[in-house]
Amino acid sequence: MFSRIDKPLRKTALAAIVVVALALTACGGGSGAASNSDALDTITPGKLTVAIEPYMPYTAMKDGQMVGLDAEILQAAAKKLNLTIEPQVTDFNGMLGGVQSRRVDISIGGIAWTKERAKAGLFTDPPYYSPPAMAVKGSQDVKTLADLQGKSLGTVTGYVWVKSIKAVPDAKLSSYPDANGLFADIAAGRVDVGFVDPLLISYTQAQRPDLGLQTKYLTPPTDEEVKKSPDLAYFQPYMTSFYVPKEEPKLEKAISGAIRDMYTNGQLASLIKKYGGDPDQYLKPSLSMTSERQATDRPADWKAPSN
Hints:
Elements: E1 47-52, E2 60-62, E3 65-67, H1 69-80, E4 84-89, H2 92-100, E5 106-107, H3 115-120, E6 122-123, E7 129-130, E8 133-137, H4 145-148, E9 152-156, H5 161-166, E10 172-176, H6 179-187, E11 193-194, H7 198-207, E12 213-217, H8 223-228, E13 238-239, E14 243-244, H9 249-265, H10 267-274, H11 279-282, H12 287-294
Parallel strand pairs: 1-4, 1-5, 9-10, 9-11
Antiparallel strand pairs: 2-3, 6-14, 7-13, 8-12
Helix pairs in contact: 1-9
């Protein structure tokens, strides 16, 4: 969900969950994070059951195959690890719940790392980072926290931005089961500012120019402001990660290793550019990200990967 966040990310259950199992063969072998796919703790040896939702440009199904930024990153990792991908299409809550109950091996698609989620599952190293972006209509001038006060602010149910919006004085929260409803209400003037994953805004601008959406970037709250109101932290840049069940630590480690290789060999930079992002914005962590994870789910010598 981005994003999907509890640091930004997401959602209440939708009325229906569509599950589609489509096998994609990720062939090839390669060196690196793991050499034996049968030893990676997956539910079915040699297979990687992946939960996604239709959430372009991050994840979707097209002609029986996963597409999108997160999909291509995972496909590259799976090929390296000799794993065959089996996608399941659900909603964001289904993605998180599928990992936490171990119905799937991994969930991907703009999922934000949070301490709360890390208690119930494992997170890989970040394949990219996400700056605080806002969807507005036209040329509305919104830059700072002060500009948000008293406005109607929208996001997707369950995204971490829900907490941050509630921390803005006099702001009115509007939450939606998906981003389409949010964008429609921004276009209609019913919502002033929408918080979702940044690449989703630029993707929607390109697909639906009739909505008149623009991307604005929020000046992140200072550490002092966050200290006074901790939920404002979700208006700062955040880490996305792939989400893995607690029972699959070998898989998490292997995919994290593959992700780090992709930082080094330039694959991530190429993919970020392909989907409309700036590698300098998406592949460089903020100073606090390393310490956040060192204090939660990484050892003291861990460093956030960087381009």
